[in-house]
Structure formats: structure tokens, C-alpha cells
Amino acid sequence: MTQDILREIIDYSNRADPYPLYEELRKTPVFHNGNGGPYVVSTYYEIQSLLHDPRISSDARNLKAAGDDPLGRSEEEGTTLPPSFLKLDPPDHDRLRRMTNRPFGPPHSPHRVHDMLGELGGLVSGLIEGIATTGNLDRIDLVDQFAYPFPVSVICRLLGVPREDEPRFHVWAETLAASLDPDPDADPAQHGKGAVDARMELGMYLAGLVEERRKDPGDDMLSQLATADGPDGSMTTMEVLSTSALLLIAGHETTVNLITNGMLTLLRHPEVLQRLREDPSLSVPIVEELLRYEPPVQLLPQRSTLSEIEVAGVTLPKGASLWLVLASGNRDPKRFENPDRFDPDRRDIQHLGLGSGIHSCFGAPLARQEAQLALSELARRLENPRLLEDPPPYRKNAVLRGPRHLPVACDAIR
Ligand code: HEM
């Protein structure tokens, strides 16, 4: 195992196919380069148990010191927004997640998502008709023309953020998504600075909307978060801002990759695409298998240990930084038979694609619904779709991984 494997994971030249690197990594389930760098965990059962371990923290303030990270990852110190619940531990995490759940729908019952089904269908049809009216079916970019605008419109609608402001927060969202990647070559003092500024600007933008909604509430989540007063009391303005920023970014930068990775995988497996075309209900197992096989969130680089912990025979000291490589756990042959095979008929599919434990994806019902609908409609409506570039050009990001463009052609749109 080379000492540089962490750099290789981040290196763009491996973006299109990082899976051979993960296979190499799994030979050492807990890898540490010995220089005070992160402990990288790549096997399914170890990742799963750490995600459920209360001795593991998501709060960046528990890392021994940002400067200890040889890859130069810095923290969010100095931001004007407090950390969102993604980066908090209990009890604050639990309180804020509970309070956010209330307007979104009761726990484990995605009724708000069901209410939105008609609307989601309308958005999907509108975008596919938009592609048809361009008249150019020889070169369609499924990212720019479909997979990006769809989830962005949905999260804007849900939160009550004006869709026409998208060009403004697009830049902040991209900066924040990119900042999740550890940067081996960045100056530790500078790395993360762009993200701090982007977060502050996004916070100020949302503060204006929250003020408006307090005066004149609508049926959107921003209004509900800003005005709700339940058993846990109400959120402070700062909590409303960091929660809505989290939802906006999470709803923005992840589902696009699930839809795009999904179409790419289906175009590489035409027999599955044909089955989906004939039976839209197959989108349910297809999306689960995609979350295992090509997960949009490849790794979680933000955890730390609150005390000394032993994992797979390795002792992690208190304050150690952890990378949990979800995409590698999903391909662990000790957990999944033929893990490198895309197989929507797989019966046993407890993947790590949406995380696990107390931080498991809050937007999971929405993400699943969006991807199921998007893929089944694209399969049904595009006649004889073909990939024009394989592999397609990828986004820079290693953590939130997916194609930047997905050029395809088709004969007609029905
Ligand atoms: C958490 C994946 C879509 C909101 C997570 C986590 C993963 C994930 C892996 C765990 C993070 C951790 O443990 O540190 C995904 C994927 C998506 C998706 C693959 C799309 C395919 C969404 C959407 C929303 C959302 C649409 C918002 C509506 C959140 C939030 C958390 C989270 C708020 C933090 C939960 C917590 O800390 O308790 N997501 N997500 N996600 N996700 Fe998603």
C-alpha cells in the first residue's frame, strides 16, 4: 500500500473510476500513513459500526487541531454561521434534527414528499419537453438540461427560496460542495477560506428571506422553521439559517449526481434500461442498487474520535481524524456478493450510500423519490438513448462525485 493512496483518491485522474483504489485500500481496513494524518476506514462492517458509535464525533471542533491534518483541511472557525446539525453531536444534533423534521414530515413518514409527487412529475415533464423543444437530440447534456435543474427546483420549492435567485446561490453551493474535499496541496491558512466566505454570503442571503417570512409566512419550510414553536421551543435565527443552508446545499449537490450516475450506469447496462422502460416500478430497486454501486457521497471526511477506540485491531487515539469511505464499504466482497456487478435484482441491499446511524440522510425519502421518477421517465421517454462520451467528464469533487456533463443522443422524445 503506497503512502500516497489518500492523494490518489483525491487526485482527479482517478475520478472516473476510483474503485480499483478502494479495492487496494480494503487490504488495510484501517489505513493510517503514520504522519498524524487521518485514519481511513474502507470496509463495510467497520464503517457501519463507527457510524453507530457514540465515541465518534461529527463536530469539527473535536479534531485534535486543524493543523494536525497533513492534507491541510481546515475547520469552519471564524464563520458567522454556527455549524449545522450535520456537524453537531447529541444533544444539539438531535434537537435540531427533530425540529427540522416537524415541518418536513413526521419521522419515517415522508408525507410531505408524497404531497409533492404531482409537482415532481410536472417538473420532470417540463424539463423533458424543454429538451424536445430545443430540437437538438444529437447532443443533449443530461446534467445541465435535466439532472441539475430538477432537484434544485424541488429544494427551492420546498424551502421557499425563489428559483430565479439560483444563479446567486449556485456559486456558493459549488464552493461549499468543493470544500468538502480534503486538499493535499492547499496552504492550511488559506484552505477553507473560500468556503467561510461562501457560507457567510449564503447566510446573509437566507437571513433576508427569513425576515420576510417571519412577517408574511407561506407554506414553505423556511417559514415553518422560522416561526415554529413546539416541545423543543423554537430555533434561534442562527439555527434557522444554518439549517436552511444545510438543506439547500444537500438538496442541491447530491441528487444531481444520483440521477446522472444512474443514467450513466443504465446506458452502460442497456438490458436494465430496457427493463425499466417496460416496468417503471423497477426504479425502486434500481435506485437502491445505484446508491450502493455509484454513491454520490463517496466518503465522509469529517469524523473524529472522542476517546481511544480499537477498530479492526488498530488503536485510534482520542482526537484522531477519520475518513469513512462509504463507496468502498459498498463494494466490500465480505458484505456483498459480486460487489462490482450492477445488479438491481440483488435482494440484500443494506448499502451505506445514505449514511447510517444518527446522521443518516435526512432527505432520503425525497432523494429516492426524485431519482426514481427521473430515471423511470427518462427511460420511458427517450427513444434509443446513446452515450456520446464514456467516461464522461467528471466534476472535480472527490467527496460529492459525479459527471459534470453527460452527453447523450436519442432518436426522438415521446
Ligand atoms: C446526511 C447522502 C440527498 C439532507 C447525509 C449523509 C449522506 C447523505 C451520506 C450522511 C452524512 C454524515 O453521516 O455525515 C445523500 C445523498 C443524497 C442526499 C446520496 C441524494 C441522492 C439529500 C437531500 C436533502 C438531504 C435531497 C435535503 C432535503 C441531508 C441532511 C443530512 C444529510 C440535512 C444531515 C443529517 C444529520 O446530520 O442528521 N446525506 N443525501 N440529503 N442529508 Fe443527504
Fold and architecture overview:
The protein is an alpha+beta fold and 414 residues long. It has a single domain (5-413), classed as Cytochrome p450, CATH 1.10.630. Helices cover 46% and strands 8% of the residues. It has a five-stranded mixed β-sheet, with helices on one face. A hairpin with a 2-residue loop joins β6 and β7. The chain is globular. The structure holds protoporphyrin IX containing FE. The site of protoporphyrin IX containing FE has 24 residues, from α12, α13 and α17.
What does the overall shape look like?
globular
| SSE sequence, one letter per element | HHEEHEHHHEHHHHHHHHHEEEEHHEEEE
Share of helix among residues? Answer: 40-55%
Low-confidence stretches: 66-79
- The total of helices stands at 17
In the CATH hierarchy, what is the architecture at level 2? Orthogonal Bundle
Q: How many strands appear in the DSSP assignment?
A: 12
What hetero molecules are bound to the protein chains?
protoporphyrin IX containing FE
Q: Numbering strands along the chain, what is their spatial order in the largest sheet? A: 1-2-8-5-3
Sheet bearing the most strands, described?
5 strands, mixed
CATH class: Mainly Alpha
Class based on secondary structure composition and strand pairing: alpha+beta
Number of structurally distinct domains: 1
CATH topology: Cytochrome p450
Q: Radius of gyration over alpha carbons?
A: 21 Å
**Average pLDDT, all residues:** 90
- Approximate strand percentage: 5-15%
Region (Disordered): 61-91
Protein name: Cytochrome
Biased composition (Basic and acidic residues): 61-76
InterPro entries: Cyt_P450 (IPR001128), Cyt_P450_B (IPR002397), Cyt_P450_sf (IPR036396)
